[in-house]
UniProtKB/TrEMBL annotation:
Organism: Frigidibacter albus
Keyword Nuclease applies: no
Residue ranges occupied by any Methyltransferase type domain in the UniProt entry: 40-151
Annotated keywords: Methyltransferase, Transferase
Protein name per its UniProtKB record: Methyltransferase domain-containing protein
Annotated InterPro entries: Methyltransf_11, SAM-dependent_MTases_sf
A Pfam cross-reference name: Methyltransf_11
Length: 295
C-alpha cells in the first residue's frame, strides 16, 4: 500500500462524513438569537464557520488558526462558496453583516477588544492550548457578558467507549509494524533507517485531559459558567481513521519524532490492518460538547 501523495493537512479529515456530522450537531444546537459577532478559534479549514454562516448568512466571523496553510485552505473554500472574505479585522467590523475574516494567529492572544464578541466556537482543538487557564481568561476577556463559548473535543476523560480501547491499541501496533517493515526494506537496499528525533511530543497526548466536570471547573475559574456539558457518540469508520492518521498534526504526536509523511503513511496503513484484524467496520468514540456563558 502506498500513500506517496498523502495530504497531511486537516482538509481531508474535515470532509469526512462522521466528522462533519459531529460538528453539524454542535453548531445546530447553538441558539443564535442576538449573535452578530463570532470568533472561530483554532479554526482549521473553517468548517465551524461554514456551518454557522450556512445557518445565519448575516453573521460576521473572524476565524483564527496558527497554521497559515489551514487558513489558505479555508479562504479558498469560503471564496468558492461565494462568502464575502475581507482582509482585516477593521474591514470585518466595518462590514457590519455577512462577512468573514481569516487570519493566521495564536488563539492565546486574541485580536479583539474587551467584550467585543457574542459567540466563540472551537472545534476539537481546545486540548491543544498551551496554557489552559490563560486561554480561558482570554476567551472571557473578549466575550461580552452573556456571550457564549461553545466547543467540542475528543481528547478528554470519557472519550473512549468501554471496550473500544483495544481498537486504538491495535491501530498503533500495526502502525509500528509498518514502520518496522519500512526500516527492513531500507536495510535490504543498504539504506539508512528512518531517522527519528527524540524528545518531541504533542500536547494532545500529555496526561492532563479533563473530564466534563474538570472543564466546567476550569471555565468557572475564568468567569465562564457551564450551561450544558454532554457526550455525543460518533462512530469512526476505517476511512475516517485513515484520514485522522493522515493529518500531520496528529501523526507527529502519535509517532513522535519520525518524519510526518512517514508517520502519516504508517498510521493510514495501520488503520486498514487494525480494522481487518478485528473484523470491524467502525469504532465508537465520544465527543465532549460544552456550552458556557460569560458572567
Amino acid at each position: 500500500m502506498s500513500f506517496e501523495l498523502v495530504d497531511t493537512t486537516y482538509e481531508p479529515y474535515s470532509q469526512d462524513p462522521g466528522y462533519i456530522a459531529a460538528n453539524e450537531a454542535l453548531i445546530d444546537g447553538i441558539a443564535l438569537e442576538g449573535v452578530a459577532r463570532v470568533a472561530d478559534l483554532a479554526c482549521g479549514t473553517g468548517l465551524l464557520s461554514q456551518l454557522l454562516i450556512r445557518r445565519a448568512p448575516g453573521l460576521t466571523v473572524c476565524a483564527i488558526d496558527l497554521d497559515p496553510v489551514q487558513i489558505g485552505i479555508a479562504t479558498r473554500t469560503f471564496e468558492g462558496q461565494g462568502v464575502r472574505v475581507v482582509d482585516s479585522l477593521d474591514a470585518l467590523r466595518a462590514a457590519g453583516t455577512g462577512a468573514v475574516h481569516l487570519r493566521a494567529a495564536s488563539a492565546m492572544e486574541l485580536p479583539f477588544d474587551d467584550g467585543e464578541i457574542d459567540l466563540i466556537v472551537q472545534g476539537n482543538s481546545i486540548h491543544l492550548m498551551p496554557d489552559r487557564a490563560a486561554f480561558l481568561r482570554e476567551v472571557a476577556r473578549v466575550l461580552r457578558p452573556g456571550g457564549r463559548f461553545v466547543f467540542n473535543s475528543v481528547f478528554y476523560v470519557g472519550t473512549f467507549v468501554p471496550g473500544s480501547e483495544a481498537v486504538f491499541s491495535e491501530w498503533m501496533k500495526e502502525a509500528v509494524l509498518v514502520l518496522n517493515r519500512m526500516n527492513a526494506e531500507r536495510a535490504a537496499r543498504g539504506e539508512p533507517g528512518i531517522p527519528r528525533k527524540r524528545g518531541t511530543h504533542g500536547r494532545a497526548f500529555q496526561k492532563d485531559w479533563l473530564s466534563a466536570e474538570g472543564w466546567s471547573a476550569a471555565l468557572a475559574e475564568a468567569g465562564i459558567d457551564t450551561l450544558s456539558a454532554g457526550h455525543r457518540p460518533v462512530p469512526i469508520s476505517q476511512k475516517g481513521l485513515q484520514l485522522v492518521g493522515a493529518y500531520g498534526g496528529l501523526a507527529e504526536v502519535l509517532m513522535s519524532g519520525y518524519p510526518v509523511d512517514i508517520a502519516s503513511e504508517c498510521l493510514q496503513e495501520g488503520a486498514v490492518r487494525a480494522f481487518e484484524n478485528l473484523g470491524i467496520t467502525e469504532v465508537p468514540r465520544n465527543w465532549l460538547e460544552i456550552t458556557a456563558v460569560r458572567r
